[in-house]
UniProtKB/TrEMBL annotation:
Protein name per the record: O-acetyl-ADP-ribose deacetylase (Regulator of RNase III)
Pfam families documented for this protein: Macro (PF01661)
PROSITE patterns, per the entry: MACRO
Transmembrane spans: none
Domain Macro per the UniProt entry, residue ranges: 1-170
Gene3D superfamilies xref list: Leucine Aminopeptidase, subunit E, domain 1
Lineage of the species this protein comes from: Bacteria, Bacillati, Actinomycetota, Actinomycetes, Glycomycetales
InterPro entries tied to this protein: Macro_dom, Macro_dom-like
Top-rank lineage group of the source organism: Bacteria
């Protein structure tokens, strides 16, 4: 697996699967989630509703991942995962790592060759950006996967620089 990073918008990635930094409800939110639903159109939300009416009646637990159509996005699938909210008193790092691992397992089941990830939990969920980069890079590197390219998509220039340097030196 090749780990790359780009400065850009997750909704513009031409890949087999893009990962959504969703919330447990799967029914939309801000940040990446809002952008994916806005650009991907109502088909994604309809698929999420079906999941909520089916085996995910209680919502998607933190750290887990599930796939839907990508609607009108230039990708085939959206893999929704729920990052942990940052906590100063509790170590939720394992949950953050699970997001990357479980999303790649779903990608493997879909036979996706390339997958684009946002920096999970680093926005509305307030995870410190440098550690979010560290967890993303180290966890993805350790994954045993048939995915050929994993692309980290960073939305801000300074975060992209952090990721680029971390990937180069790893
Ligand atoms: P979370 O709720 O898991 O914190 P967010 O979507 O709020 O997720 O933010 C996760 C990261 O994605 C943040 O670094 C944020 O700046 C970035 N981000 C926001 N919008 C986009 C986008 N359209 N494409 C890529 N990254 C984005």
């Amino acid at each position: 697996m090749r780990l790359t990073c780009v400065l850009g918008d997750i909704t513009e990635q031409r890949v087999d699967a893009v990962v959504n930094a969703a919330n447990s409800s799967l029914l939309g939110g801000g940040g990446v989630d809002g952008a994916i639903h806005r650009k991907g159109g109502p088909e994604i939300l309809a698929a999420c509703r079906d999941l909520r009416n089916g085996h995910l009646g209680g919502g998607l637990p933190t750290g887990e991942a599930v796939a839907t159509t990508a609607g009108e996005l230039p990708a085939t699938w959206v893999i929704h995962t729920v990052g942990p909210v940052w906590s100063a008193t509790q170590d939720r790092t394992e949950l953050l790592r699970s997001c990357y691992r479980n999303s790649l397992s779903v990608a493997d089941r879909l036979s996706a060759a390339n997958v684009a990830f946002p920096l999970i939990s680093a926005g509305v969920y307030r995870w410190p950006v440098d550690d979010a980069v560290e967890q993303a890079v180290t966890t993805l590197r350790r994954c045993d996967t048939a995915v050929e390219e994993v692309r980290l998509v960073l939305f801000q220039a300074d975060t992209f620089e952090l990721a680029r340097k971390r990937i180069e030196t790893a």
